[in-house]
């Protein structure tokens, strides 16, 4: 395996921090032991946790208004893979990449799979793209894709999704994520019911092409690019569609795809209750689909989502196997740094949720002891789990201080010498 950052650099930095890590880990271990928690067991759980990074998140993305590329930004899937390998090498949290087609199209997927494996990476859910037109495309998506009035457009969208499944098979993926930008900007523009009927018919054709061990993850989004109505606008539409499609169809929750202040953790519990929790796109949001770094705005919400996931895992009902992916895109930071930071925050919330004393929580709930129920969550949330994450990371070969090592490596500067500059232009949705 050839990894992009020098092992010596990581080892040197880890050696400098080894005493601090041991001290902090031991102190936290003693603190947790007082409440009956074995820190090594939590660390082992964290070591088994991972989240996928999106290939498109390796670029700077932008807003609808502008893109401000940085020197050394990746433009091909090969360059993006290398950046993803950096994130995983340092964090040991992100061993899979979620690709987006046709953005990541290549001629040889077997070779791409090997190229990723060489860098310690596998593949997560394949994302289809029927929300923008490609050069030479026969039918425009200007009026929708799976729900378009035009039958040839719908067929084109179905065919593209089936092609994504085929690509995913070659890469070793087992999930297809379908997000459509279909919707309207004007009352009366489309009939709500008929457009949903058309979506369901198209989605069923894709579903029929899924291999047995695959899942189809339906991603809802309240608005944007459509600003009046969206075909799969919320978790209600999503779960109804998933129920109609069949057991392999599940719902994907992108944290930024809800109205402000919506209780996302409750949505997670509901989806799990009905066996339809398929996965997540982690990011944070202040106003809308802002795609900000995970936990940068509302880390408590992220913790509460993981608390529901811990409950769900302990009560699997129809199984528990959500896929975890980051979906963020930036205009102001180096995307590698942002994804390192996000992956760490996500794992922290996972770790904190593992610390919740569930017996105490459930007992307090039974007794209607509201304050103690709340405190069961609060106590776990207040623990600084950084030493647990650092220990798991260092033991797995990652860096104690991921950002410091990344900066010391001058990786981006080196890539700026090798890679061709990114063009200007508008961002993506
Ligand atoms: C969208 C969705 C979806 C999609 C991405 C494309 O979150 O996951 O793949 O952005 O940029 O808003
Ligand atoms: Mn998303
Ligand atoms: Mn989004």
Q: What's the SSE blueprint?
A:
Layout: H1 7-33, H2 39-47, E1 53-54, H3 77-91, E2 96-98, E3 100-101, H4 109-118, E4 122-123, E5 126-128, H5 151-171, E6 175-178, E7 183-184, H6 192-208, E8 215-219, E9 229-230, H7 235-245, E10 249-254, H8 264-273, E11 277-282, H9 299-314, E12 323-326, H10 335-355, H11 358-366, H12 370-382, H13 386-395, H14 402-409, H15 411-418
Parallel strand pairs: 1-2, 2-4, 3-5, 5-6, 6-8, 8-10, 10-11, 11-12
Antiparallel strand pairs: 7-9
Helix pairs in contact: 1-13, 2-10, 2-13, 3-10, 5-6, 8-9, 9-10, 10-12, 11-12
The CATH H-level homologous superfamily = Divalent-metal-dependent TIM barrel enzymes
The major sheet is characterized as: 7 strands, parallel
Bound molecules: alpha-D-allopyranose, manganese (II) ion
Unreliable runs? none
Helix content, binned percent: 40-55%
Classify the oligomer: single chain
CATH architecture: Alpha-Beta Barrel
As laid out across the biggest beta sheet, the strand order is: 3-5-6-8-10-11-12
Order of helices and strands: HHEHEEHEEHEEHEEHEHEHEHHHHHH
Structural class: alpha/beta
CATH topology name = TIM Barrel
Measured on Cα atoms, how large is the radius of gyration? 22 Å
């Amino acid at each position: 395996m050839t990894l992009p950052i020098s092992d010596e650099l990581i080892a040197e930095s880890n050696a400098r921090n080894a005493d601090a890590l041991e001290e902090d880990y031991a102190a936290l271990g003693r603190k947790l032991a007082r409440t009956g928690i074995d820190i090594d067991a939590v660390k082992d759980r964290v070591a088994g946790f991972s989240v996928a990074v999106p290939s498109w998140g390796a670029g700077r993305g932008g807003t609808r208004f502008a893109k401000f590329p940085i020197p050394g930004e990746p433009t091909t899937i090969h360059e993006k893979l290398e950046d993803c390998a950096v994130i995983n090498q340092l964090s040991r949290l992100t061993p899979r990449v979620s690709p987006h087609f046709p953005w990541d199209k290549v001629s040889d997927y077997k070779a791409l799979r090997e190229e990723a494996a060489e860098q310690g990476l596998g593949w997560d859910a394949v994302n289809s793209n029927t929300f923008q037109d490609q050069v030479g495309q026969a039918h425009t998506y200007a009026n929708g894709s799976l729900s378009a009035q035009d039958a040839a457009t719908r067929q084109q969208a179905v065919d593209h999704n089936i092609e994504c499944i085929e690509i995913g098979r070659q890469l070793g993926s087992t999930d297809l994520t379908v997000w459509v930008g279909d919707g309207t900007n004007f009352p009366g523009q489309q009939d709500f019911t008929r457009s949903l009927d058309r979506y369901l018919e198209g989605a069923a054709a894709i579903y029929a092409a899924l291999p047995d061990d695959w899942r189809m993850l339906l991603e809802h989004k309240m608005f944007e690019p459509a600003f009046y109505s969206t075909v799969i606008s919320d978790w209600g539409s999503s779960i109804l569609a998933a129920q109609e499609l069949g057991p392999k169809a599940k719902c994907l929750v992108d944290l930024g795809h809800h109205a402000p202040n919506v209780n996302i953790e409750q949505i997670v519990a509901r989806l799990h209750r009905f066996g339809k929790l398929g996965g997540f796109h982690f990011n944070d949001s202040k106003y809308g689909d802002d795609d900000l770094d995970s936990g940068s705005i509302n880390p408590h919400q992220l913790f509460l989502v993981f608390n529901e996931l811990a409950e769900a895992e302990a009560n699997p009902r129809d199984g528990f196997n959500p896929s975890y992916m980051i979906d963020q895109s930036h205009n102001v930071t180096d995307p590698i740094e942002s994804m390192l930071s996000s992956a760490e925050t996500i794992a922290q919330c996972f770790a904190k949720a593992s610390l919740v004393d569930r017996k105490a929580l459930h007992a307090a709930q039974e007794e209607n002891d509201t304050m103690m129920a709340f405190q069961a969550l609060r106590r776990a949330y207040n623990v600084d789990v950084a030493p647990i994450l650092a220990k798991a990371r260092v033991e797995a070969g990652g860096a104690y201080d991921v950002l410091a090592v990344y900066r010391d490596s001058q990786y981006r500067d080196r890539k700026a010498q090798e890679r061709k500059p990114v063009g200007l232009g508008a961002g993506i949705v």
